[in-house]
Amino acid sequence: MTELNKLTLAEARDALRKGDVTSVELTQACLTAIDGADALNAFVHKTPELALERAKAADERIKAGDAPAMCGLPIGMKDLYCTKGVASQAASGILVGFVPEYESTVSQKLQDAGAVMLGKLNMDEFAMGSSNETSVYGDSVNPWKIDDRKLTPGGSSGGSAAAVAADLCLAATGTDTGGSIRQPAAFTGTVGIKPTYGRCSRWGIIAYASSLDQAGPMTKTVRDAAIMLEAMAGHDMKDSTSADLPVPNFEAMLTGDIRGKVIGIPKEYRPEGMSEEIAKLWDEGAAMLKAAGAEIREISLPHTKYALPTYYVIAPAEASSNLARYDGVRYGHRAKLGSGDGINEMYEKTRAEGFGPEVKRRIMVGTYVLSAGFYDAYYNKARKVRTLIKRDFENAFAAGVDAILAPATPTSAFGLGEMKSADPVEMYLNDVFTVTLNLAGLPGIAVPTGLDSKGLPLGLQLIGRPFEEGDLLNTAYALEQAAGFVSKPAKWW
Amino acid sequence: MSIDTGTAAKVAKLARIKVEDDQLPALAEEFNRILGFIEQLGEVDVEGVEPMTSVAPQRLKRREDVVTDGGYQDKVLSNAPDAREGFFAVPKVVE
């Protein structure tokens, strides 16, 4: 058998059920891999004792014949998820020392399904970033390496992507507000799905932009994404925006048969100056789906170019409101006060010390666009354009399109620090292909389909109809089978 | 739309984030770049378009307005930087 930490969820699940391996052995293999991978800075709070305790309990359950889908499978948890008794600080200095008294719904569901949490994973502060460089823990590093440079694993779920790609865990949780699952998946040769808005409960996941945030799995294969999403999804009384819909058996829907499906190719996703490699990858992906029996049809999503500016009004606006709770009163950091400092100085100093530059920037942009006199010009305008962006997709689906194929990222992974001096807007452009479907609430999945000329992974993105993740996963499965991407990063860490 | 240092200071104050005076010009410049990027929304014709309030077509779930949980004073206070006698403690608010 290969090294246990290198197994997929499906392989490990089957081996556990056959009795070929125990959860304790799987967990031990991952813990050893994690301890040898500090150079990646992916796991920022390790919980080995808790993991082994849960692994033992999982082995008992399996022995007793009670083995739900995720039972005994070791996974990593993004630091954005509140986990009872385990530090949860959204990679922010303002939540230093915060240890929740409660468990997020999604991590609880995974725990109930028997999954074994190995620890908390690095990310961009409050999920605001596309390179994992805004983290209070320092940069997470991409296990893919082609020269002396350290590359970004993407963001904001950078630690999750790095950990899965480096086989530190069998899978990990992520969250996606503007591309934070799909972009890091594409940068690391892994699979990541952002489900339909409402599919997973947001309760207990530290909020960034509540109308856009969604939890999702980051995995080694499409099959694993199907298995893990099923365990994470479902209605929750504690989140009124979670959908009261049955969760299908997604794995059972993976037939690979996509004959007769209509795949839309949006012409607006081919901006001028698009890299030739990305264009070629996209064409090849379309050809693979066509060869599998799908019909390829050019479509138009005319408001695509306005998605990023819309996002950079709505997300900061919601963030400025959500992050108002970090005031030094109820949890986390409080600034040391000078004599004569009152409550306003406490708020202002606490927030100045606790938040990093990108988070402050977005809070203040959000404050500005919501302030008196600008609310209509910016915030309401953006909400109207958002309606139009969603309508573009609705029109495409109404015309018979089953899924949309697009690139996941404009480039392969870039070097850490290379964008440091860049304009913030330049970093925002990383989300150009991913952000549209957060605005429309749609499910999207990134699937690795090839390597660029430098030898770095590239991914394509499939976008599906609302609440039809099963069909979307099946199309992704067909693409995965056709692309046959099997490359792994060479171990240097 | 151009943001000057006075506006930047006002926004920082509204957001309750202390920004030193010598940082204000750089902050104003950043705002201008980001807002310049957002300005392109002005090109879009939104005549008669409703602003989105919910991305999902469904109505939010209702429930009875009753107490369903609670009684966790110790847990609620356990992460507070300063808690005394069952309360969150803050600097004096009223003179």
Automatic annotation (TrEMBL), chain B:
Coiled coil: none annotated. Keywords: ATP-binding, Ligase, Nucleotide-binding, Protein biosynthesis, Transferase. It comes from the Bacteria. Its EC number is 6.3.5.-. Heterotrimer of A, B and C subunits. HAMAP family: GatC (MF_00122). This is Aspartyl/glutamyl-tRNA(Asn/Gln) amidotransferase subunit C. It comes from Donghicola mangrovi.
